[in-house]
Structures are given as C-alpha cells and as structure tokens.
Amino acid sequence: MSNQSKTTKVGDASGRGSVAGYRVNFPARMRTYSEAEIEAVVNVMRNAEVQTQGNYMRQFEADFKAYSGANYAFAVDNATSALRLSAIMCRIGPGDEVIAPGYTFCASAIPFGTTGAKLVWADIDPETWVIDPKDIEKKITPRTKVLLVVHLLGMPVDMAAIMEIAEKHNLRVVEDCAQAPGASIHGRKVGSFGDFGCFSFHGAKNITTLGEGGMLTVKSAADAAITPGLRHNGVRPFTGERARYWVPAMSNVDIDLENTWPNNFSIGEAQCALGSELLKTLDQNNDILIAQANRLRTALSDIPEIKFAKIPDGYRHIFHQFVLHFDGSAFGKNRNDLLDFLTEEAGIRAIVQYHPLFRYPLFQKLGAAEQNCPTLDDWWDNSFSFPWWIGMPDETMDYLVDSVKAGIATLKAK
C-alpha cells in the first residue's frame, strides 16, 4: 500500500484503532473484558437501585483507597475532572505559577491553565524521560504554588525528590497518574505521595471503566471534606432533625470553597462496579505488560541506535506504552526515516504519542509557548511507540523486533 493511501485512512486522533493495510495495528484499547467484568456491569443494570452516587461508587472508592494506599479516594467521570478538582482545591489563579512537565497529554495541563495561573514547563530527566526534579527547582519563583508531576507512560517520577522540594518551598503537589495505575516506588503506589493523585480509566488504559472514568486521591482531611460537594453540584443533606422529610426540600445546595462554583463530575454505578472488578486483576495485567516490555528490551539490547528509559531500582514501571528512542545520526537518518520503513515496508502502525505541549497551537495561543526544555526537544524528535496491548502474542513481538533490526540495516545501507 502506498504512503498516500495509508495516511489518508486514519483512525482517531490518538493513532489508535484498526486501519486497513497494516499487519500490526495500534489497538483502540489495551485489553478485552472478562466474563466476570461483563457480569458486574449487567448486575448493576438489573439490580442497582440508583444509577449514580450509590453503593457501587462507595465500594469502588473504598476498594481503590485500599489498593492505592491513599488516605481518601473519590470516583469521578474522568481523569481530567480529577485534575480540575485538584486545581480548584489548590486555590490558584492569575499571578500564580504551576510548574508542569513540557511532555505529557494536554489534559494534564489544561485544568491548571483554566485557573488563569501561568504554566511553567519543566524539562524531562534524560534517563527516565519523566519530569526532572532538578529542572523543577531551577524554575521555582516566589509565584510558584503547585508542582504538577506526571508518571508518564507508566514510569514513576522521583517522588522523594519532588516532596523534598515541595516541603522546602511550601508547594502543593499534584500527581497525574492517568497512565500509571499500579506503578510504585519501593512498594508505595503512585498517587499516595502528593496532595492529590489523579487516575484515568479511559479506554486506552490498563484499567478502563467502559471508555471513561477516573479517581481522585486526596491526602488531607480538609481537602477530602470539600471534594464531594465540588464534585456534585454542591449537593448535600440538610442538617438537623426535620418534622417532614420534604421540608424545605429533599436536599440542600451550598458552597464548599469560598467564591467557587461546584461542578458535576459524577460517575455511573455500572462503571464503579466494573472498576471494583478490574482492580482484582490490575496487578496481574501490569505484570503481563512488564514481561512484554522486558522481552522487547532484551531482544533489542544489542542495537546501539535504540535506547529505552532507565528504570531506577525499586521502581515499578507498568509500561502504559512501549516507547523507543532512535538515534540514526551516525548515518544521517532520524525517527521519521525508521517509521517510514516500519509503516511502508513492515506494515507496523507505530505512532508518535504527542507534541511537547509548548509546540501545540492551543498553548501557544493562550500564552504558554515560552520554554527552556533542551533535553525534551532533543529526545522527543526521535522517539516513537510500538503498537501495544496486554497479551501481545510472542510472534507479534518477534516481528516488531525483526522489523526494527531490518529497518535500521536498510537505513544504514542507503
């Protein structure tokens, strides 16, 4: 198939989904549902008294709290809502600064940008490819209020260093764990270190509650106390005894945070029942991803042009995606040359995840184009991701490895 015919048949904007003409596609979701997971949803459809804000939500929150080691957990409709709630509770606005990674999905930063605070982009660590605490500290000013760290692609950020910086400068810490449910540092799971942890159960994640869903973990009792109202329109029971249960009305609506309107970030009961069921196999599925990644990393370890992120001792990197960095500078080739071979000759639909945020028109037009992230600029231009899902066949992984080796050999020979 020609390059023109392939590039015109695109899936969604993420690059996922089946496209004709490829031997190995990038699937739209990481895994299929088990019969037990399907039955959990059907059971809610048949038996649940309410469809939202009910017992299944409370059970999912309790299950996630126990799994994550967080002090409090609140289920929401997606991770962007969790991030928005954390931004609201950080009490930031115009004149404040939020230090955020220059490389992440746009939804990490947008909720903080909407507050009117300035986004200050931090560089990536040259070895782990996630936000660099050393660069964060260089960019702290008297206006800095929040550190937004992202456990990108399943790799934990150095949270010991982050929390030391935050304590030193009296800063709030938000962990974006959207791509890292189950990742940990010396046995402690991400989302339990900072003031807030934000999780995604989107269809492309290792745990997905019918396409969307999320969780906000909270450290302090004070923040936890105001989260339910901010999540659900300020609704709460009237206090005290009532002679008639309907007087003055069934429920009250009040303010939780001064001068702050509440939202509706509620999640459905069926999604919550599914979430509780999915938690039972999350670690097992992460083990599968780790084993797949180890197989590929070992098989490509003798190719000097291919590099992988370094995984620090004691870090559980759960490989939301399998990312490679290609350096063909010795023979005048780059990432795009290798991807041309993989797509055109091998039929592999590898993808480039997303731009550094400061390169996008959205952030440029809204005043967040300024940046000093040389490591990211150099690294991103030659990185890409393999097709990736839980339970890849060995023959598919072998084909990916053989194709990369063949592609590099071909490029060297040109």
Count of distinct strands: 15
Alpha-carbon distance between the termini?
22 Å
Strand content: 5-15%
CATH class bucket of the largest domain: Alpha Beta
CATH fold topology of the largest domain = Aspartate Aminotransferase, domain 2
Looking at the overall shape, the CATH architecture of the largest domain is: 3-Layer(aba) Sandwich
Number of helices: 14
As a whole number of angstroms, the C-alpha radius of gyration is 23 Å
Percent helix: 25-40%
Condensed summary:
With 414 residues, this protein is of the alpha/beta class. The chain has helices at 3-8, 35-47, 55-68, 79-89, 106-113, 133-138, 159-169, 221-231, 269-279, 282-299, 335-344, 361-365, 374-380, 394-413, and strands at residues 72-76, 97-101, 118-122, 144-150, 172-176, 184-185, 188-189, 196-200, 214-218, 235-236, 252-253, 306-307, 315-316, 323-326, 383-385. It has two domains: 3-31 and 282-413, Aspartate Aminotransferase, domain 1 (Alpha-Beta Complex); 35-279, Aspartate Aminotransferase, domain 2.
Write the layout of secondary structure elements.
Elements (H helix, E strand, L loop, with lengths): L2 H6 L26 H13 L7 H14 L3 E5 L2 H11 L7 E5 L4 H8 L4 E5 L10 H6 L5 E7 L8 H11 L2 E5 L7 E2 L2 E2 L6 E5 L13 E5 L2 H11 L3 E2 L15 E2 L15 H11 L2 H18 L6 E2 L7 E2 L6 E4 L8 H10 L16 H5 L8 H7 L2 E3 L8 H20 L1
Parallel strand pairs: 2-3, 2-4, 4-5, 5-8
Antiparallel strand pairs: 1-9, 6-7, 6-13, 8-9, 10-11, 12-14, 14-15
